[in-house]
Design brief:
226 residues
Length: 226
């Protein structure tokens, strides 16, 4: 069974290579347009364009052989993963067997107050999430901050819309206990969008909990997709 990973806002496929190597399955990390190995492509104009790109790539890859697959999405990637799952189900009757929702409280995104903040304020916020070391600040501001802002604007235009049919698979919710972005009382709202079981698993750490809990996280994912 293959696993496709959707990165967080501002994330590159390379950020997840260590995770991909530790998961006992074939893993593909989806690279968003406009960065990394797809840097020559134009960035998305809205979240819908991102989803259409993902569905196009997945349908080309999987419809040939009918192989089972699962999706994993962290933070912004969680929304990309679940929307892609719905589209693959609706258009091709070929949904993933399960979706791992990482670092998101609810399918109902709330606009991030940091989107229009200064570079310094936005950078401090990102450091607080744990995805960026303070010594990387200078490089980050020059190279990656525009991508972060672009992704946040994509998210600001995203709204989950109720579907006529639930996603026909299971959900695995994963988060860090110290993640200030997680509102635990809202996690139950994910259950209403899937026909299969919904499982919840908490780890020590913050928004990027999997960086410090990588072995346990990868072992859990490996067992779930086996």
């Amino acid at each position: 069974m293959k696993l496709i990973i959707f990165p967080h806002a501002g994330g590159f496929a390379s950020y997840y290579h260590e995770m991909a190597e530790k998961i006992d399955s074939e893993v593909i990390v989806f690279e968003y347009s406009g960065r990394g190995r797809r840097a020559s492509r134009e960035s998305y104009s809205d979240f819908e364009e991102l989803i259409c790109d993902a569905v196009e790539k997945l349908s080309e890859y999987f419809l040939k052989d009918g192989e089972d697959y699962c999706l994993f999405g962290h933070s912004m990637g969680a929304y990309a993963a679940i929307e892609t799952a719905f589209r693959m189900q609706y258009y091709y009757d070929y949904p993933p067997k399960c979706v791992f929702i990482s670092g998101q409280s609810s399918p109902y995104y709330e606009k991030n107050q940091y989107t229009e903040k200064s570079d310094e304020e936005l950078s401090q916020y990102l450091i607080s999430l744990g995805g960026l070391r303070s010594e990387s600040m200078e490089m980050y501001l020059k190279q990656l901050l525009p991508i972060i802002r672009q992704d946040m604007r994509l998210l600001d235009g995203y709204r989950y819309r109720e579907k006529s049919l639930p996603y026909n698979g299971s959900l695995y919710l994963m988060y860090g206990e110290a993640d200030d972005e997680i509102r635990k009382e809202e996690l139950c709202s994910w259950k209403g969008i899937a026909a299969g079981e919904t499982y919840v698993r908490a780890y020590s750490g913050g928004h990027f909990y999997f960086k410090n809990e990588l072995d346990d996280v990868c072992d859990y994912i490996s067992r779930c997709v086996s």
